[in-house]
């Protein structure tokens, strides 16, 4: 894996990005947040109306009815670089508050899986976000430029999440 340093790392996040055969990309972000895991969990998974305050490119988030298999679902409305707008549906496959949430991209321009892992650390939380994804549809043609900008949006979002949760304590 490669480690990318920069402004996100200065704010307490660690980023790894790896491309696999140019079809799937793995993103791994880690951030330490001075708040208990339950507070971080709530900001990420339950307080959806405030998610645009910290999530890069997110215009709106809303809970959807559960899938036929009973999995929780969330719709994100995104304003992406280059003027692209996209709707993205995430379906949870693991819901274990406040320890771990995993899922898949059920609908929208991304294909793949994601996970959040919350570990108590020195009175705070170490949060690790991992995503394996590929672009679908018209976004696939935007190629590497959009991928890089989307990944930077995730890095910024993790740093903004840290600031948002810590300021709410």
What does this structure look like?
- The protein is α+β, with helices and mostly antiparallel strands.
- The chain has a single domain (3-168), classed as START domain (Alpha-D-Glucose-1,6-Bisphosphate, Chain A, domain 4, 2-Layer Sandwich), CATH 3.30.530.
- It has helices at 7-10, 37-46, 143-168, and strands spanning 3-4, 13-20, 24-33, 58-64, 73-79, 85-96, 100-107, 110-121, 124-135.
Task: Give a short summary of the structure.
The protein has helices at residues 7-10, 37-46, 143-168; strands spanning 3-4, 13-20, 24-33, 58-64, 73-79, 85-96, 100-107, 110-121, 124-135. The protein is α+β, with helices and mostly antiparallel strands. Strands 1-2-3-9-8-7-6-5-4 form a nine-stranded antiparallel beta sheet.
Strand residues, percent? over 45%
> Reading side by side through the largest sheet, how are the strands ordered?
1-2-3-9-8-7-6-5-4
Query: What assembly state would you assign to the polypeptide chains in this entry?
Result: single chain
Distance between the termini: 34 Å
- Total strands: the figure is 9
Structural class: alpha+beta
Gyration radius over CA? 15 Å
Query: For the residues shown, what is the average pLDDT?
Result: 84
CATH class descriptor name: Alpha Beta
**SSE pattern, N- to C-terminal:** EHEEHEEEEEEH
**What is the helix tally?**
3
Q: Can you tell me the number of structural domains? A: 1
């Amino acid at each position: 894996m490669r480690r990318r340093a920069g402004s996100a790392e200065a704010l307490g996040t660690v980023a790894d990005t790896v491309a696999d055969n140019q079809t799937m990309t793995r993103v791994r972000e880690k951030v330490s947040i001075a708040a208990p895991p339950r507070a971080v969990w709530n900001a990420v998974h339950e307080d959806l109306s405030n998610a645009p305050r910290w999530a890069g490119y997110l215009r709106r988030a809303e809970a959807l009815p559960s899938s036929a298999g009973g999995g929780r679902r969330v719709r994100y409305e995104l304003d992406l670089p280059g003027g692209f707008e996209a709707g993205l549906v995430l379906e949870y496959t693991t819901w274990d508050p406040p320890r771990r949430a995993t899922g898949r991209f059920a609908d929208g321009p991304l294909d793949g899986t994601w996970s959040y892992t919350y570990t108590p650390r020195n009175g705070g939380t170490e949060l690790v976000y991992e995503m394996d994804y590929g672009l679908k549809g018209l976004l696939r043609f935007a190629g590497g430029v959009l991928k890089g900008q989307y990944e930077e949006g995730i890095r910024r979002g993790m740093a903004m999440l840290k600031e948002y949760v810590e300021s709410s304590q």
